[in-house]
TrEMBL record:
Catalysed transformations (reactions): L-cysteinyl-[protein] + hexadecanoyl-CoA = S-hexadecanoyl-L-cysteinyl-[protein] + CoA
Classification via InterPro entries: Palmitoyltrfase_DHHC, PFA4/ZDH16/20/ERF2-like
Organism, as annotated: Crepidotus variabilis
EC category: transferase
EC number(s) on file: 2.3.1.225
Transmembrane residue ranges: 15-34, 46-66, 147-167, 198-219, 239-263
GO molecular function, one term: protein-cysteine S-palmitoyltransferase activity
Keyword terms, alphabetized: Acyltransferase, Lipoprotein, Membrane, Palmitate, Transferase, Transmembrane, Transmembrane helix
Keyword Membrane: yes
Name this polypeptide is given: Palmitoyltransferase
Length: 353
């Protein structure tokens, strides 16, 4: 696990470095040097600077929040309840109505309430677990989903706003670099007519990517003779700009897709964990005394209530209670359990109202 934590620390450092590079590119090169200083579009430049800084700083803030308190946030430490004292149907793991416990690491037989999962990377049982996110190097839990979805949406929005002023210029520069590369004798000989270029470095796509990079290299040599100003990297084709925009575009699309999937699960009353195939240790996946029907979601309260529950969590510092609060069950599932004949034969669940 130490190796995994090390890899995650590397990922986190890279994400923060990319965020910092994007902020630097947007604030100084696009906003200040290009829009305001070179093009003298003062009002647009100031609006752009304000918008892009609010968006990127919010992303950074949410990212740091989601990465923090890895050892302590949402760690489930509740005493094992007495099943004979419970008066409402509850989620359990077997026909006797027993509760799941965790025997791993320092958990040492402690209770795993519904929706709790032992994260092997963090080494702790986490309440309201959704998934462990290697990008933030931490578990994402239900109380933190709001910050998570907001961060993903702002990543996409930040990318669109950040790139908007230079999008068409950048596309022109890329086509120019490609054209220069395809017509240059040296580039043709060493890259375009070299057969392995079709196979290595990512196939035909990689062939065009490296071909374009060669074009940028040729343009750089020409540029260095003409343009000596350091800060004007938007006016002339600079490969650094393409790399930062390219990498952030991958993140932005990934974030948008992930946000959409997460929102879908929230509205269905599911977590990433509950959509995985059941195992005997997941108390959230089955009510064994009254087995669930295929596809039945016991914690789905309907789209409106699921959405309201999602919104009810504070964005930061979700409340922790010392007593465990049982999750509400889906009314249809509850009705079916209450009217079930097996109710009377099961000593472990008493459903008196
Ligand atoms: Zn555990
Ligand atoms: Zn974790």
């Amino acid at each position: 696990m130490a190796a995994l934590v090390f890899v995650e620390t590397l990922i986190q450092s890279s994400v923060l470095a990319l965020l910092l590079s994007s902020w630097h590119l947007c604030t100084f090169h696009i906003g200040l040097y290009w829009m305001i200083s070179s093009q003298q579009r003062y009002r647009n430049g100031v609006c752009y600077l304000v918008a892009v800084n609010i968006l990127l700083l919010s992303v950074a803030f949410l990212y740091i929040h989601l990465s923090s308190f890895r050892k302590s946030h949402g760690v489930a430490r509740y005493p094992l309840p007495d099943k004979y004292q419970l008066t409402e149907p509850y989620l359990c793991i077997n026909i006797h109505g027993d509760f799941a416990t965790c025997e791993r690491g320092s958990c040492a037989g402690q209770w795993k309430p519904p929706r709790t999962h032992h994260c092997s990377v963090c080494g702790a049982c986490r309440s309201d677990f959704d998934h462990h996110c290697p990008w933030v190097g931490n578990c994402v839990t239900l109380p933190r989903l709001k910050a998570f979805v907001l961060m993903l949406s702002l990543v996409f929005l930040g990318f669109i706003v950040g790139v908007m002023p230079i999008a068409s210029k950048l596309l022109d520069q890329i086509s120019l670099a490609l054209l220069v590369s395809r017509t240059d004798e040296w580039a043709k000989e060493t890259w375009w007519n070299w057969t392995p270029a079709w196979i290595f470095f990512g196939g035909p796509f990689g062939r065009y990517f490296i071909g374009t990079a060669i074009g940028y290299r040729i343009l750089k040599e020409a540029r260095d003779n003409l343009d000596s100003t350091n800060n004007q990297i938007i006016n002339q084709p600079h490969f650094r700009v393409v790399v930062i925009v390219g990498l952030t575009s991958i993140f932005a699309i990934f974030a948008l897709v992930l946000a959409a999937f997460t929102l879908r699960r929230i509205l269905r009353g599911e977590t990433t964990l509950s959509t995985l195939p059941p195992t005997s240790s997941r108390s959230t996946s089955i009510i064994e005394v009254h087995p669930l029907k295929p596809g039945e979601r016991p914690l789905d309260l309907g789209i409106v209530k699921n959405w309201n529950t999602f919104l009810s969590y504070p964005l930061f510092n979700p409340r922790r209670t010392s007593l465990y609060i049982w999750p509400r069950l889906n009314p249809t599932v509850l009705r079916r359990i209450r009217s079930s004949k097996r109710l009377n034969t099961s000593p472990s669940i008493n459903t008196q109202e």
